[in-house]
Amino acid sequence: MSGIGGNPLRITSVQPVVFFDLDDTLYRSDSGVMEAISRRITDFVILHFGKSEAEAERLRVHWRELYGTALRGMREEGYAFDADSYFAFVHDISLDLIAPAPNLRAAISALPARKLVLTNADANHAWRVLWRLGLQECFERVIDIKLMGFVNKPHVVAYHNVQKLVGADSSACVLIDDVAANTRGAMAAGWRAIHIANAVEDGVAHATVPDVETAIEHLREAWRS
Ligand SMILES: [Mg+2]
Question: What fold, for 17-29+100-224?
Answer without folding.
Answer: Rossmann fold (3.40.50)
